[in-house]
């Protein structure tokens, strides 16, 4: 999450309170079991969704702005029913397989994974229109909490985690998500020691030999949104090397290769970073901060998976996604771009403005690159499919040519849900002015929610998807700004 001037100034009082890393609470395991736990493979085995379509929502960071915007996407998908060519009618929301969440977006993702449709009853009151930031500051300044904040292993993010649990998660853990039948929720933080992503799934916790089912959802949300300096890190215990953890079979091909195949080099680096957690003796503690530092749109994991799939096909090997005909990704990016007038003045911007801009600009650029990488992958796969389906290719019996043109059969739909896609320039200007804080006016929350549905309906890629699958919308969401957009 890119911290704004408002966030850094309003929380500056927290900096004078003691800020030790939080105490680890994740318990160890003595043996891994890839057939159990909160992981993609077990969730997919239980899913009733069509295996032909893999639907992914990627929720970006951005405080309450991101939480409200991503919630608007869920509202749109819930209200939108379509009819498939075989006459089957279903809500778009019920077809979602995976939701990734970073920082502010992780709250909406985790809460939906926990509550399902019940989320729409009170999420607005419990979180979106709650002054979370003000309550956190009040607690930090209250003598009631000073003893905790000054104790060893207790920091500002521990205080935040406690608050998130009270107002939203009610003591729930990943074990509660594991018992549900909804989409896989992947909340991400950043390992501040290495700068790499840390994803809360059992696959990651296998490497550190710990039981994710016992980890509170509030701690994952706190880690994912722990803005460096303003909030302390969330610290977890690493027991790596004590549970006989081994990488999946397909990963060994890449991990044992000194010359990683293209285009999977970046994904393999992520795999190796994850495997490095296996040395718990050398790294007994992991310190996690805001997921936006490493991936502000929650897309890096999606890209890594696609790169691995492509590399496996290039090697002539099966991949976990071979059954998918369509991979549909909604990139829900709440990045705001407030204008500045710095270039109109002889005097340079202030120190705080420069620091915030210098921190935010690389994050924004990285987010843009991730979205463009997804589009490049979609175009490359489409080109390979077109060639393979051509008459000239069918007539060519050269095995070397066939090997060179291997590739996944799935088609990728990259649906960009971002402010810049709004046709209403006044509304775009209004949304761009909303700060990255954990408090927004109720009007801003409602307009963010409404904008999400408007953007999806106007998306050319969304329209292409409906056309390609032969589906038609039979129940359309109310227009943006109508009374029905509020629960």
Describe the fold and architecture:
By secondary structure, this protein is of the alpha/beta class. Helix content is 45%, strand content 12%. Strands 1, 4, 5, 6, 7, 8, 9 and 10 form an 8-stranded mixed sheet that branches. Strands 3-2-11 form a 3-stranded antiparallel sheet. The protein starts with a helix and ends in a 12-residue tail after the last strand.
Concise description?
It contains 20 helices and 11 strands. It has 487 residues and is α/β, with parallel strands linked by helices.
Q: What is the number of strand segments?
A: 11
Low-confidence stretches: 1-22, 479-487
Mean pLDDT: 83
Binned strand content: 5-15%
Largest sheet: 8 strands, mixed
Level of helix content? Answer: 40-55%
Radius of gyration: 23 Å
> What gap, in angstroms, lies between the N and C termini?
27 Å
Q: Structural class per helix/strand content?
A: alpha/beta
Shape annotation? globular
Output the number of helix runs: 20
What's the structural blueprint in terms of helices and strands?
Elements: H1 5-10, H2 40-46, E1 53-59, H3 63-79, E2 81-83, E3 89-91, E4 98-102, H4 104-115, H5 119-128, H6 132-141, H7 143-149, H8 156-169, H9 174-178, E5 184-191, E6 196-199, H10 202-207, H11 217-224, E7 234-237, H12 249-255, H13 265-275, E8 285-289, H14 300-314, E9 326-333, H15 351-388, H16 391-395, H17 399-404, E10 411-418, H18 425-432, H19 442-458, H20 460-469, E11 472-475
Parallel strand pairs: 1-4, 1-9, 4-5, 9-10
Antiparallel strand pairs: 2-3, 2-11, 5-6, 5-8, 7-8
């Amino acid at each position: 999450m890119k911290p704004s001037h408002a966030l850094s100034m309003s929380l500056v009082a927290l900096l004078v309170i003691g800020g030790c890393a939080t105490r680890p609470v994740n318990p160890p395991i003595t043996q891994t079991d890839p057939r159990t736990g909160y992981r993609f493979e077990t969730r997919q085995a239980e899913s009733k969704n069509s295996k032909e379509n893999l639907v992914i929502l990627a929720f970006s960071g951005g405080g309450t702005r991101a939480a409200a915007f991503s919630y608007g996407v869920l509202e749109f998908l819930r209200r939108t029913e379509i009819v498939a060519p075989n006459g089957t009618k279903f809500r778009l929301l019920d077809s979602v397989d995976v939701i990734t969440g970073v920082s502010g977006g992780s709250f909406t993702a985790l809460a939906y994974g926990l509550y399902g449709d019940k989320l729409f009853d009170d999420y607005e009151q419990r979180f979106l229109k709650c002054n979370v930031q003000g309550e956190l500051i009040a607690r930090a300044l209250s003598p009631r909490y000073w003893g905790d904040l000054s104790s060893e292993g207790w920091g500002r993010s521990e205080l935040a985690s406690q608050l998130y649990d009270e107002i939203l998660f009610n003591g729930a853990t990943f074990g509660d998500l594991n018992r549900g039948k909804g989409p896989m929720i992947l909340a991400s933080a950043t390992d501040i020691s290495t700068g790499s992503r840390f994803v809360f799934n059992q696959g990651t916790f296998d490497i550190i030999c710990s039981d994710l089912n016992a980890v509170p959802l509030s701690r994952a949300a706190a880690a994912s949104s722990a803005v460096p300096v303003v909030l302390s890190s969330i610290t977890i215990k690493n027991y790596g090397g004590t549970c006989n953890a081994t990488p999946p079979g397909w990963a060994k091909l890449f991990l044992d290769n000194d010359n990683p195949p293209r285009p999977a080099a970046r994904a393999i680096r992520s795999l190796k970073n994850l495997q490095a957690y296996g040395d718990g003796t050398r790294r007994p503690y992991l310190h996690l901060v805001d997921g936006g530092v490493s991936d502000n749109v929650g897309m890096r994991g999606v890209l890594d998976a696609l790169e691995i799939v492509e590399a496996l096909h290039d090697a002539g090997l099966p991949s976990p996604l071979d059954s998918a005909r369509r991979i549909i990704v909604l990139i829900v990016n709440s990045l705001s771009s407030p204008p500045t007038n710095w270039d109109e003045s002889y005097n340079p911007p202030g120190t705080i403005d420069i620091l915030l801009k210098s921190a935010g600009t690389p994050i924004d650029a990285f987010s843009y690159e991730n979205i463009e990488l997804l589009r490049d992958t979609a175009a490359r796969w489409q080109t390979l499919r077109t060639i393979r389906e051509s008459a000239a290719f069918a007539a060519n019996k050269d095995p070397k040519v066939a090997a060179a043109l291997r590739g996944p059969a799935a088609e990728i739909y990259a649906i960009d849900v971002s402010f810049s896609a709004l046709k209403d320039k006044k509304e775009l200007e209004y949304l761009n002015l909303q700060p990255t804080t954990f408090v927004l006016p109720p009007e801003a929350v409602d307009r963010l929610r409404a904008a999400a549905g408007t953007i999806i309906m106007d998306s050319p890629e969304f329209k292409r998807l409906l056309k390609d699958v032969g589906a038609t919308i039979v129940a359309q969401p109310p227009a943006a700004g109508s009374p029905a957009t509020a629960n």
